[in-house]
Amino acid sequence: xxxxxxxxxxxxxxxxxxxxxxxxxxxxxxxxxxxxxxxxxxxxxxxxxxxxxxxxxxxxxxxxxxxxxxxxxxxxxxxxxxxxxxxxxxxxxxxxxxxxxxxxxxxxxxxxxxxxxxxxxxxxxxxxxxxxxxxxxxxxxxxxxxxxxxxxxxxxxxxxxxxxxxxxxxxxxxxxxxxxxxxxxxxxxxxxxxxxxxxxxxxxxxxxxxxxxxxxxxxxxxxxxxxxxxxxxxxxxxxxxxxxxxxxxxxxxxxxxxxxxxxxxxxxxxxxxxxxxxxxxxxxxxxxxxxxxxxxxxxxxxxxxxxxxxxxxxxxxxxxxxxxxxxxxxxxxxxxxxxxxxxxxxxxxxxxxxxxxxxxxxxxxxxxxxxxxxxxxxxxxxxxxxxxxxxxxxxxxxxxxxxxxxxxxxxxxxxxxxxxxxxxxxxxxxxxxxxxxxxxxxxxxxxxxxxxxxxxxxxxxxxxxxxxxxxxxxxxxxxxxxxxxxxxxxxxxxxxxxxxxxxxxxxxxxxxxxxxxxxxxxxxxxxxxxxxxxxxxxxxxxxxxxxxxxxxxxxxxxxxxxxxxxxxxxxxxxxxxxxxxxxxxxxx
Length: 588
Hints:
With 588 residues, this protein is α+β, with helices and mostly antiparallel strands. The chain contains eight helices and 37 strands.
């Protein structure tokens, strides 16, 4: 055999060596690594990023088998044994250990095994053939053994995976065990006194106006000297919604085994008062299991939408069910890739939610008293936003943002008032629009090719509407992270960086503070931003367009935190997919 045909680095191996041609394998490993990393750096959360991340490992594995079988100069049983060591354990591990998260095996395990395979051949170039063959089997099986000892535990918003040892219980299992040890709700129905929304209450997603603004509250911002005081903290079931806090009760949604649960806690103690379960479990590999939405309290009733599409109406005081609707059956809805995440909006006698149904059924409304379908309309086919209240041109309306753009409906009957098509094909929108006065709407996204933020001018023109674009900016590209408006500026997220955007021009005022993919509230009376960081910390930031100034921070929760914070009754309520907590703020 000539040096040209020999293999690694084009050098002939010594006698009695295994002359495998290695360089094509090294090239495959390098190309797969580049395909998985580079698009995410250059074009995060675009189709190119997602396709490359999920397709590159599979294509790379097939390419590695092709190289080994046809171009590596391998003969005999090893020509077929090595591909079997790649794919057979992948099927077994995926079916037995990673059930429900099989994609994690394809995306993370296959590249690891291929890399171990190729690198062993490279570093063992001068070793005897028997050592190289035996070492190759050991290297591949060792990686599979490590994979089998790990459990995929989801990923962060940048799709960086998390793993745990298989003998460690999941957070959901820890919650089930701890809940079994906690005192259960007292037998008998809770007090039947109606739950009424009062001053300082937080009746649903992002507050009374769904704009993330806290009014009527001024807090002590010297957290270095007087940090927030822990009132209670305990584990909760998986879920990515927030709290509705009304009448001394804190309502949220959790996954409890095979059921989606609406849970009522005592706001001052964290004690569970009641739960209502609906059969259904939605899970996916990134966020895991659990409902994604926040309940809504309205006229003594509680409305909650689960990730599987079940919409329930309960008595807020007792949890007694009034009705249940199914978006997939009643409104022709299609469960989105990451589950239904819209929080119900109750207005004009109807409950309005994102449905994602075909042929003009993107948004649906159900009668608040009976649960019967009132109307379905709109072009939304992929989205995770909630219906948003607005009054533009003096006309009350409901906005829905989605892959289509923004649509405005008359709440009572679903008549389309106006629309602005800013489509992101194959992708989605998640964040809420911001309504500026009587005429302007700001909305944005951090996914798809059309990333950025846009301000619209919407004016009533006789029987119709004029909709124009004032500006489009790349300064803020929010993923699932909502922003707040303070004066003439928008404070929110550009990917994982906190930023301030000038609402008059769309220009950047500043971009500082890496809080991950977090959420933010505005304490409007004192111009202070309360940021829930993705790592569980809570940070106070001055709402100052001139500079980014942190006033204080503390570790409120542990673990990945994507949920919106709540300030109600002078207390801070926070939660994530594994625990919830209440802190007393120093109210002035």
